[in-house]
Amino acid sequence: MKKFLAMLLCGSMIFGLAACGGGAANTSDGGSDAAETAEAGEATHKVGFILNSSINDGGWGTACYTDLTAAVDADPDWELAYTDSLSQDGYYDAMVAYCNEGFDLIYAPGGEYTDAVMQVAEEYPDVKFALLNGGEDIPASAKNENVTCLLPDATQIGWIAGALAGLASETGTIAFIGGMELTTTLAKYEGYVEAAQYVAEKEGKTVSALDAVYANSFDDSSKGIEFANAMIEQNADVFFGDASAVDSGARQAIDEYNEKQGEIKVFDIAQPADFLGQNDCIIGSQVTDNSSLLSLVLKSVADGTFKAEVTYGDLENGVLSIGALSDSLSKDVQDKYLAYIEEMKNGTFMS
Fold it and tell me: FRET pair for 253, CA 20 to 30 Å: which of 5, 93, 120, 193?
C-alpha cells in the first residue's frame, strides 16, 4: 500500500513526521505528541505540501490536495506529507522543517507563498520547489535554479466562468470574491468580466460586474458570508470566487438566501474542481487538473531533469476544463455554453 507521511505541527513549530497507510493525516492544531510510524519502509522521494487553508475546506485547499495526492498515487517512488491551516508567518518554518527532514520537493499552491518559497529555496539549494500560480519571472530569479512555476491560464479560467455567468444572469449583475489581490486573481476577475459581458451582448442583454472584493484571507468563511449577503443586496445573481474557504462561506450565504426565496435565484460557479452538488447554488465549475502538471514535476525531480521554468496549462492541453452543469440550466443555455468553450479551445472566442 502506498505510504503517506503526516506532519505534526506543534505550538513551538517543532514538527514530527509520521507515516500512515492509505492517506495523509494532519494534526496542525497545536498537538504536542510525536506521531508514530504506522508502516515500515521508505519511498525513494518525498514531497511536502504547505497550505494556508484546510485540505477539507471544500474548495481550493481540497482541490489542490486532491490533485497532489493523485500525482503521488500514480508514482510509487513518491510519498506525501502536508501541513495545512498555516498562517502567513508559518510558511517559512513549515518549509524549513521539510527541508531539514530531507524532503526532495516542496509544493506551495499559490502566489501568496512566493516570498517564503524564494527565501527557503535560496537557503536550501539541494531542495526543489514547485509554486502554483507563481509569476513568470520567478524561475529565472531563483538563485539556485531550484524553483519551477505551474501556471494555469488565469484569463481562460475567468473566461470559463464568465461565459456561464453571462448566459445565466437574469438581473444583469454578477459578483467576484477574491482571497488576496494576487496577479492571477486579478487576471481571473478581468477574464470573468470580459467574457460575461461579451456573451451577454451576444444574447442581446447587458451584464455588469460589481467591483471585486478581497477577504485578505483564504480561510475566513465568515468574510464570504458577509460579502455574499452585501452583493446579493446589490442585485448580484451569479458569483465566482478565488478564495478557498471564503468561497465556501459565500455559497452558504447564497444557499440560505435561496432557501428563504423558496427557489434558486442566485447562482455560484465553483473552481478549481467539479463541485456540482456540494451546494444547491452551484450551476457549474471551472476545473483545473493540476495533477498533470505536478506529475511532470515529480518525474523531473526523480530523473534529474528538473528545470527552473514555467509549465503552462490551458484548455488546449487539457489542464483546464469544465465540470458538470446543473439541471437548472436549460438545454439551450448548456448548448450555447459548450459552444463558447469550444471557441476558447480553438482560439476564436472574442476574436
Answer: 193
Domains and CATH numbers, the chain: 3-153+289-313 (3.40.50.2300), 154-286+323-346 (3.40.50.2300)
The answer to whether the predicted template modeling score (pTM) of the entire model surpasses 0.85 is no
Give 273's DSSP letter. S
End-to-end CA distance of the chain: 50
Strands 213-214 and 238-242: unpaired
- Whose grid coordinates read 478564495? 243
Range 278-283, long-range pairs (CB < 8 A, 24+ positions): 278/58, 278/251, 279/251, 279/252, 279/254, 279/255, 280/255, 281/239, 281/251, 281/254, 281/255, 282/251, 282/326, 283/164, 283/168, 283/325, 283/326, 283/328, 283/329
Type of residue at 77: D
153-183 burial string, b = 16+ CB within 10 Å, else e? bbbbbbbbbbbbbbbbbeebbbbbbbbbebe
